[in-house]
Design brief:
The complex is a heterodimer of chains A (about 280) and B (about 160). Chain A has about 280 residues and is of the alpha+beta class. Chain A folds into three domains: about 50 residues, Uridine Diphospho-n-acetylenolpyruvylglucosamine Reductase, domain 2 (2-Layer Sandwich), CATH 3.30.43; about 110 residues, Uridine Diphospho-n-acetylenolpyruvylglucosamine Reductase, domain 3; about 100 residues, 2-Layer Sandwich (Enolase-like, domain 1), CATH 3.30.390. Helices cover about 35% and strands about 25% of the residues of chain A. A five-stranded antiparallel sheet of chain A has the order 4-5-10-6-7. The longest helix of chain A is centred in the last third of the chain and has 20 residues. In chain A, about 50% of the residues are buried. Chain B is about 35% helix and about 15% strand. With about 160 residues, chain B is α+β, with helices and mostly antiparallel strands. In chain B, α2 crosses α5. Chain B has two domains: about 80 residues, Ubiquitin-like (UB roll), CATH 3.10.20; about 70 residues, DNA polymerase, domain 1 (Orthogonal Bundle), CATH 1.10.150. The model of chain B has no long low-confidence stretch (mean pLDDT about 95). The chains are: A alpha+beta (about 280), B alpha+beta (about 160). The interface between A and B is medium-sized, with 28 and 32 residues.
Amino acid sequence: MKPAAFVHHRPTTLEEAVRILAEVAPDDGRVIAGGQSLVPIMAYRMARPPHLVDINHVAGLDRLAVENGRLAIGARVRHMAFRDSAAPGATGALLSTLMRHIAHAPIRTRGTFCGSLAHSDPSSEWCLAAAALDAVLIAHSARGVREIAAADYFQGAMTTDLQPDEILVEARLPLLPDDTRIGFVEFSRRAGDYALASVLTTFRLVGGKIAEPRFAIGGAEAFPRRLAEIETMLTGAAPDADLWREAAERAAAIIDPLEDAATPGDYRRDLVRALTLRAFQQANA
Amino acid sequence: MTMKQDLTLLVNGARYDISVEPRKTLADALRDDCGLTGTHLGCEHGVCGACTIIADGAPIRACLMFAVQAEGMALRTVEGLAKGNEWSPLQKAFVEHHGLQCGYCTPGFLMLATSALEENPDISDEELRDVLSSNLCRCTGYENIVKAVRAAALEMGASS
C-alpha cells in the first residue's frame, strides 16, 4: 500500500508545467492536483507514474468566475468551493447539490472539479454535470491550446480525449436560466461511495410545457451522457405522471449498462428506471 | 528509489525539518519522520478516515497527500488537541460517552469532528451524521461517537 517511487515536479507557471509534462508524458508521467483518485490507485500500484507534475502551485488555476456568460472552473478549484453556491443561479445550485454527493468532507477539501473530469470515473458527479450541461473543456500542452466539447471528451470508462501531454486547465459550463428546474438522484451502497447509477435532469416549464430539457445518466454506463431520445420525448410535453413513467421505462431500456460480479446489468436498468422517476418528481416538485 | 528531499512541516505550531522521498505520504511522514504516531493508518487509500488531520483549517486524509505537498501548510494532528494535561472538550466527551472501544479510529474521528465543530458549532444532527459518515469504526461504536460529539458541541457552545 505504498506508492512506487516518483520524481516530484513543482512548476509555478502553466508554461513550465506543460513543458515538464511534455518531457515526462512519454514515460507515463502524470499530472496531480487534488490527488484524491490518483493517490489511491498509486497506493494500490495500479498506477506507477515515475513523474508527477504537481499543479498545486501553478498560478491562476484556482479561478472560479463567470466570463462571457459561462462559468469558468479552473484546474485547482476544489469540490468544496461549490458548497455555498459559489457559482450563481441555477448552475450554481446544481453544482452545490452535486457536490454534497461527492465522497466526504476531507476528500472535498482536496479533490478538484477538473481532476474528476481528467480521471473520468463512470460514476463521477462532475463528469455527469459536464455531460449534461455540454461543458467545454480547455486543454493546454506544449503544442498549444484546444477546446474539447463534452460530447467528444468522454470515450470510455476512465478514458477521455485528453492526451498524455495535456493538462485540463479549465472547464466551462453554461449558466442555466434562473427558472430551470433541477432533478438529481444517485444510488450508492454506502454514504459517499461510488454511485451505481445517477440521473441528472434540468428543464424549464413554459406555458405548462417542458422546454429545453436535459437528461443525462451517470454510473450506469461506461461514461455519462445525455439521452437524446428521452429529451425528445420530454420537449413540449406536459409534466405529468404518465410522461415520467414512460420516460423512466424508456431510459431503463435504452442504456448499455455496466456489469460486474455484484451488479448485473438488469439491476442497473432497474436503478435507472427508479432514479429517473425520482429525478423528474424532484425537478417537478 | 528516488532522492530524499529536505522539507519543513509545520505541525501543531512546531517545525519539523525532515528528509523524505517524494512518494512518502504525509501520514507516514508524520509518524515515521516527525515521531507523531497519534495519526493512525487504516486502509491507506482514503476510505477509512483513520488518518484524518486538519490542514489549513480543513480536514484532509493524510494518506492521500504526499509529505512534499504539505510544506507551508499549518497542520494539526491529534497530539495538538490537548492543552498540556488538559484534554479538549471533545476528547473529554469521548471518554465520558464511551466514544471509543479499541481506539484505533479515534484520532481520525477526533480531528474530523474538531474541524466540523470549529466550522459550525451549531451543526445539526443530520449534518453531523453526514460529516461523521466519512470515517469508519470497525468496533461500530457510531452511536456513542455521535453522542460524544454532540455533547462536546453543547459544552463548547456553553463555554464560548
